[in-house]
Each structure stands twice: as C-alpha cells, then as structure tokens.
Amino acid sequence: MAGEYVWLVTGSNRGIGLELVKQLLSSPSNIVIAACRNPSKAAELHALSDSAKGRLRLVALDVASKESIREAAQEVAGIVGDKGVDYLINNAGINPGGEDTAFTLDVDVLEQVFATNVVGPAYVAQAFSGLVEKSTKKTIVNVSSTLGSMGADYGTRCTSYSVTKAALNMLTYKEAKEKPDITAISMCPGWLQTDMGGQNAALPVSVGVAGILKTVLSLKPEDSGQFFNFKGERVPW
Ligand SMILES: NC(=O)c1ccc[n+]([C@@H]2O[C@H](COP(=O)([O-])OP(=O)(O)OC[C@H]3O[C@@H](n4cnc5c(N)ncnc54)[C@H](OP(=O)(O)O)[C@@H]3O)[C@@H](O)[C@H]2O)c1
C-alpha cells in the first residue's frame, strides 16, 4: 500500500460527503473510508464500491452518538492497521434551524445542532486521533461555513447554525495548538447545490468539492489552525 493515502469522510452518503468520496476514488492512490449513519441504505456508495476495486470501505458512524463513534474508530483501526488515517474529514452537519435568529431560535434545536456540528467532530477527532497520528499526512479537516465567521458579517440570519460553526472553528484552532504534529483546518466548501444548500445555491457540488480537495492537498504544516475556503483563500474569523 506504499504511496496510498487513507481518507475518512463523515456524512458520506449524500451531498458534499458523497461527492468527496466520488472525486477521491478517481485517484488510484486514495483509499476511502466512507462513514455514514446507515451503510446498508447508502445505495450510491454501494454503487461506487463496485468499481472501486477494494479502495472503498463503508463504516457506520452517527456523529451524534459517542458509542457509534467509538465503535467506528475500532472498526477503522481494524481496516487500516498501521497506515492510520491520513485525512479525517469531519463533514457531517445539519441546519434544522434554517434562517433562525438570536431572539427567536428554539434552544432545543440549538442543542441538537451543537451536538451534531460541534460535539460530534470533537469526539470524532478524539476517537480517531491515534489513527491520524499514525499516518503520513496527519490532517483533520473540519467542514465549517463562512456563516460562522464574525468577520464576514452575515447579520441576523442562520443563528443556531452559525453559532455552531463558529464553535467548530475554535475547536480547529485548539486542535492545531495542542497537537503541532497534526494539521487541523476549518474549511468552507462554498454555497453548494446539496439538500442543505438548496438547488438555488451558487455552485454545483462538484466545483466546491474539487476546490476543497485542491486546497487540502496543498496544505503545509504552517497552515494548521487556519480557516480556508474552497478557493484556497483564508476566511476571516
Ligand atoms: N451545502 C452548502 O452550501 C454548505 C455550505 C457551507 C457548509 N456546508 C457544510 O458542509 C457539510 C455537508 O453539507 P451538505 O451540503 O452535504 O449537507 P446535506 O446535503 O444536508 O448532507 C448532510 C450529510 O450529513 C450527514 N449527517 C447529518 N447528521 C449526521 C449524523 N448525526 N451522523 C452522521 N452523519 C450525519 C447526512 O447523513 P443522513 O443522510 O444520514 O442524514 C448527510 O450525509 C456540513 O457540515 C455543512 O454544514 C455546506
């Protein structure tokens, strides 16, 4: 398996996660662990595995369940062995609050979004850190959003979601500071045509994902702890 890199993508059964898996499999040097809540129902991932020649493995992982994360980490350790996980892509995310605002948001929804968008990636990083540190590339990508940037100044909208992405950005910063051997970044994929982005979004998902991969593949150790977009530009905090 020399010259091969292991990628793990959460939320890989649709949207940005599925497109990441598709584009990664186009390179024979990539081994992809596609993590999703229900592998048995992930028809598009199963269709991809027919032509992947053993380079795609499906693993059950619900980022809102600590038990599921622990079980997935054990299963992945058995699959990848000493190679570890080169690129851990914390992609799974939700926005059930939609366009909610600070004084009207449902705090139960805020808790739910926080559990998936912040607690999930935090525990995934902890559970998989040993595998990441065993690998060659040692990279964690937290899929964030420019909506979580105060500098971008998006005003009142999408508050519960924005709060969680701002928190995820701080998590990225803390991960980078604590483990200098790891390259941890936040990544805004752009406004993309997925179930979350909607069909009126600015760009097809293929364009944003190609940009994410180009940016991630050109990361240098000194980029750790930073917030990038899919064009490889720095996003203000
Ligand atoms: N699309 C955009 O314009 C945009 C812009 C900025 C940032 N983002 C971020 O990009 C990421 C992917 O977004 P998307 O547009 O692909 O969204 P999407 O089309 O709604 O897909 C979301 C994915 O996350 C998974 N997911 C949700 N909760 C999960 C959980 N508890 N455990 C495991 N997987 C879970 C979903 O799995 P199920 O099928 O099982 O529900 C699905 O695969 C998110 O973090 C989002 O915040 C998207």
TrEMBL record:
<dbReference type="InterPro" id="IPR002347">
    <property type="entry name" value="SDR_fam"/>
</dbReference>
<protein>
    <submittedName>
        <fullName>NAD(P)-binding protein</fullName>
    </submittedName>
</protein>
<dbReference type="InterPro" id="IPR036291">
    <property type="entry name" value="NAD(P)-bd_dom_sf"/>
</dbReference>
<comment type="similarity">
    <text>Belongs to the short-chain dehydrogenases/reductases (SDR) family.</text>
</comment>
<dbReference type="Pfam" id="PF00106">
    <property type="entry name" value="adh_short"/>
</dbReference>
<keyword id="KW-0521">NADP</keyword>
<dbReference type="GO" id="GO:0016491">
    <property type="term" value="F:oxidoreductase activity"/>
</dbReference>
<dbReference type="GO" id="GO:0005737">
    <property type="term" value="C:cytoplasm"/>
</dbReference>
<keyword id="KW-0560">Oxidoreductase</keyword>
<dbReference type="InterPro" id="IPR051468">
    <property type="entry name" value="Fungal_SecMetab_SDRs"/>
</dbReference>
